[in-house]
Design a protein that fits this description.
Layout lengths: L2 H7 L22 H7 L5 E4 L5 H10 L1 H5 L3 E5 L20 H23 L4 H12 L9 H16 L1 H8 L15 E2 L5 H5 L3 E2 H15 L2 E6 L2 H4 L4 H18 L5 E8 H8 L12 E3 L4 H12 L3 H7 L3 H5 L2 H11 L13 H8 L9 H20 L13 H23 L4 H5 L5 E4 L1 H8 L3 H13 L4 E4 L5 E4 L2 H7 L2 E4 L7
Parallel strand pairs: 1-6, 1-7, 2-5, 3-4, 5-6, 8-11
Antiparallel strand pairs: 8-10, 9-10
Length: about 500
């Protein structure tokens, strides 16, 4: 088999886990972090963009049957792909924290009530919960998650809006005092008289739901992912929604049979806690996804080994490779050149790849690494199709194909991540085109034509989103270094910036 034929059949899978849910288990890396999550020891999963949060979310969903055998019921509270369930909330959001917290709790109760109906759970507490929800029309038939959220939002507004409350309560036209209450669910704990009339609070319904699950020896895991795209159009709304979510998470922490599982980007968590968030110290069941050299190499090798044509070409058995870390490294360097840049002191190819796909936060994530290898394959195929000779020896790639791949990764990262998610910094990044890779406040002030104070604000934001890495010299001088990841698309030049005073 010719190298061009092997490459044409080679696939490293999708870079976004939502696009490869069915294949994910074949090359999922079984880390200690994953084992803790699977065991139920972790509720909150943090990680940089592309670190694999959604892969874990998808894997938990894929293992529904296995988890069911452990009496764990998986409930997806967000669409794994497509339009986020919370997208429409941007146009008509809650106006107070009370509304937001009530919305989260109502939504979770709706999902649990629907689960009881689907699974045929009919103990007294389960039937009671379903009856209360159905009386309020909170378990609609055959509705999407976004419809559930809309219904929950309308219900919460009915409970919290003064005008609506007057309609529900029915004021005496003479005395102005409440005469009756039509609804059976309220936000706060009911009075003794209201309890006698069958009125319950949302928190009481949560307690009923937990007891219903306890009687059946079931545990409900409610999974929330893709929160980074749910509220992208409104940063303030995102902060309010997530702060309320974590407060609700703590409210529900006392219930052993209902567990909220949140998958959230590290930068978003940092943003919502930056101004102070006292409840953060009480969130202890969490983990931050991290990758080291060996786990990333293992990830890539697992994807490579899914290619039957490549296995035949190198005459290898996947199970033997996966059982030996040394053989994984050996296989990688049979496929790829030993080095990308020539020189004794230059790093080996995989180290080079890791250094080129890390951002200013200095955390490697699988997404850019997979992108790099996929783009490199495209470049190598083009070279062979244009009549260039085969790579030397066993290798399928030449070093220039890998460099070509990095250029594409740089373009995607800058335009589809930074420009798309942080449009307010776009003009400042574009002004760095053809500039030096090491900057200082004085030089940046001149490039951006801003006062020092304004420049410092922009720089801090760029550090937070991973564009700049802040460095301090032995002499105590501060500079801002642009990672390799962004340099190609901006055509930046290696070296330290000069100001007008230096010239």
């Amino acid at each position: 088999m010719k190298k061009q034929e092997v490459l044409s059949q080679m696939s490293l899978g999708a870079t976004i886990s939502e696009d490869e849910a069915r294949q994910l288990e074949k090359y999922f890396v079984n880390t200690n972090q994953w084992q803790r999550i699977l065991a139920g020891d972790v509720d909150i999963v943090y990680g940089p963009k592309g670190s694999g949060k959604s892969a874990i979310y998808a894997m938990l969903n894929n293992k529904k049957l296995e988890l069911f055998d452990r009496n764990i019921l998986i409930i997806l509270a967000e669409n794994p792909r497509g339009t986020p369930a919370f997208k429409d909330l941007v146009a008509d959001p809650p106006t107070t924290e009370e509304q937001f917290r009530a919305l989260w709790k109502t939504y979770f109760l709706m999902l649990i009530g629907n689960l009881f109906k689907e699974e045929g759970i009919k103990n007294d507490e389960a039937l009671k919960l379903v009856k209360y929800l159905e009386d309020e029309k909170l378990i609609p038939r055959d509705q999407s998650l976004s419809a559930y959220i809309k219904i929950a939002m309308d219900f919460v507004k009915r409970l919290t809006t003064p005008e609506a409350l007057e309609t529900e309560v029915g004021l005496n036209p003479i005395t102005g005092t409440p005469e009756s209450f039509k609804g059976r669910i309220i936000l706060k704990e009911p009075s003794a008289k209201q309890s006698e009339d069958g009125i319950v609070s949302i928190d009481k319904l949560v307690s009923i739901a937990n007891l219903a699950l306890e009687k059946e020896k079931f545990f409900a895991w409610i999974l929330l992912d893709r929160l980074d795209v749910a509220f992208t159009e409104n940063v303030l709304l995102e902060e309010n929604a997530l702060r309320a979510l974590f407060k609700v998470y703590l409210d529900l922490a006392a219930f052993d049979h209902i567990k909220i599982k949140v998958f959230l980007r590290t930068d978003i968590w940092n943003r919502i806690t930056k101004g102070g968030f006292r409840e953060a110290s009480h969130i202890t069941r969490h983990v931050t996804i991290s990758w080291d050299l060996q786990s990333l190499l293992n990830l890539i090798i697992r994807r490579i080994l899914q290619n039957e044509s490549l296995n035949k070409y190198y005459e290898i058995k996947p199970e033997e490779i996966l059982s030996d870390a040394g053989k994984q490294r050996e296989l990688f360097y049979r496929i790829y050149p030993k080095k990308v840049d020539v020189g004794d002191k230059k790093p080996e190819t995989f180290i080079w790849m890791l250094s080129r796909t890390v951002d200013g936060i200095r955390k490697n994530a699988p997404r850019e690494l997979i992108q790099l290898l996929s783009f490199a394959k495209d470049s190598q195929l083009r070279k062979l199709e244009m009549g260039e000779g085969d790579p030397e020896g066993e290798a399928l790639f030449v070093n220039t194909s890998i460099k070509d791949g990095l250029k594409e990764v740089s373009k995607v990262r800058l335009t589809q991540t930074l420009f798309a998610e942080y449009p307010e910094v776009r003009e400042f990044l574009l002004k760095l085109k053809n500039q030096k890779t090491q900057q200082n406040i004085k030089a940046l002030s001149e490039i951006w034509n801003l006062e020092y104070s304004e420049t410092e604000k922009i720089v801090e934001e760029l550090i937070e989103i991973g564009f700049f890495e802040k460095r301090t010299s032995k002499e105590g001088e501060t500079s801002y270094w642009v990672p390799f990841l962004y340099r190609d698309e901006l055509d930046m030049v290696q070296g330290a910036a000069e100001t007008s005073e230096d010239q």
